[in-house]
TrEMBL record, chain A:
Biological role: The transhydrogenation between NADH and NADP is coupled to respiration and ATP hydrolysis and functions as a proton pump across the membrane.
This protein's GO CC annotations: plasma membrane
Pfam family, one: PNTB_4TM
Name of the protein this chain belongs to: proton-translocating NAD(P)(+) transhydrogenase
Species this protein is from: Tamilnaduibacter salinus
Membrane topology label: Multi-pass membrane protein
Length: 96, 278
């Protein structure tokens, strides 16, 4: 229970940080920002790694799901950051 | 080791905060993205050191496969198709949360643990939000591509959405109350939540899809935070709620820029009302 209260405290405080971070974003940055935060939500890879690695060697449904989760989260992260970089560099060239 | 891992998660979270901050201004956006990517690398290394991780074969295989697909997707996508790619990646992230929650639950049951109510709620939230993000994003991508037109059968979709919502509530209560002994209920929940995702997005007009994608992005963050509660992992909780909150604000900002109100976008289609196809 104490653990939950601690986690919940962190959750609420981080929500406020998230709200404060976004203000007055120019419209051209909407899509790259969405793409960038989407790549960050790939953080679920941490959970995926733990669930894929915590079984033994013989494949169970749980470890197969873990493998799928690692694959999906990695796609999310790698493609997310790369495509955000591509978008932002496009803007840079157009502006200069 | 425990302290080191948690300090790494904290470092990663700080990188994400600085990264998002950087991405809100044109002059620092590229650097912001790099800082966020560095944070992700730190988080991945920390996760690999976790004491529960005993076999690396599945992890390495999944990472190599995911990285290959990810690089290919990011390189081969046409500039004009980038919004669709972002929407797809969103759905993929939701699918990852869904799989993590299901896998963790199965592991706990196999180990003979009796889930507490709080833990079951976290699993439920993670599965629901993950699944809705997954199928909702698929519908959004199809609409962005123009493969899926706007539905003329609004009433049918309203009915499907309301029914699956009610069924999700019933199955969810059973899942929590029962201490979840049967994987069948879990399977039913996943199926219903997947259907719910389709039902929620399908009635929304194609013109409003950018806002929907932004909202689904916020959902995928919240799904991550729910997974953090499942695993009692503070790194996940911080980052997930960060993305969830900033995603919601970004959604509101985008709505304003498009001169639309969020309730109008969301419920103008799904629950009666007049959907002005702006």
């Amino acid at each position: 229970m104490e653990m939950f209260v601690l986690s919940f405290t962190i959750f609420v405080l981080a929500l406020f940080v998230g709200v404060e971070l976004i203000n007055k974003v120019p419209p051209t940055l909407h899509t790259p920002l969405m793409s960038g935060t989407n790549a960050i939500s790939g953080i679920v890879v941490v959970g995926a790694i733990i669930s894929a690695g915590s079984g033994g060697m013989d494949p169970t449904l749980a470890s197969i799901l873990g493998f799928i989760a690692v694959t999906l989260a990695t796609i999310n992260i790698v493609a997310g950051f790369l495509v955000t970089d591509r978008m932002l560099n496009m803007f840079k060239r157009k502006d200069s | 080791m425990f302290a080191l891992i948690n300090i790494s998660y904290l470092t990663a979270a700080v990188c994400f905060i600085l990264g998002i901050k950087g991405m809100t201004r044109p002059s620092t956006a590229v650097r912001g993205n790099l800082i966020a990517a560095t944070g992700m690398l730190i988080a991945v290394v920390a996760a690999l050191l976790h004491h529960a991780v005993i076999s690396y074969a599945g992890i390495i295989a999944g990472m190599l496969l995911g990285a290959a697909i990810g690089i290919w997707l990011a390189r081969s996508t046409e500039t004009t198709a980038m919004p669709e790619l972002v929407a797809s990646l969103n759905g993929i992230g939701g699918g990852a949360s869904l799989s993590v929650a299901a896998s963790t639950w199965l592991n706990a049951i196999a180990a003979g643990e009796t889930p507490t109510a709080g833990w079951s709620i976290a699993i439920l939230a993670s599965i629901l939000i993950g699944a809705v993000t997954l199928t909702g994003s698929i519908v959004a991508v199809l609409k962005l591509k123009g493969r899926l037109g706007d539905s003329s059968r609004k009433r049918l979709w309203q009915f499907a959405t309301a029914t699956s919502l009610a069924a999700v509530v019933v199955a969810g209560v059973l899942f929590i109350a029962q201490g979840a002994v049967s994987p069948l209920i879990l399977g039913a929940l996943v199926a219903l939540a997947l259907l719910l995702g389709v039902g929620l997005v399908q009635p929304i007009g194609g013109a409003d899809m950018p806002v929907v994608v932004a909202l689904l992005n916020a959902y995928s963050g919240l799904a991550g935070a729910a997974t953090g509660f499942v695993l009692e992992n503070q790194g996940l909780i911080i980052t997930g709620s960060l993305v969830g909150a900033s995603g919601l604000i970004l959604t509101a900002v985008m709505c304003k820029a498009m001169n639309r109100s969020l309730p109008n976008v969301l419920f103008g289609g799904a629950f009666g009302g007049q959907a002005d196809d702006g």
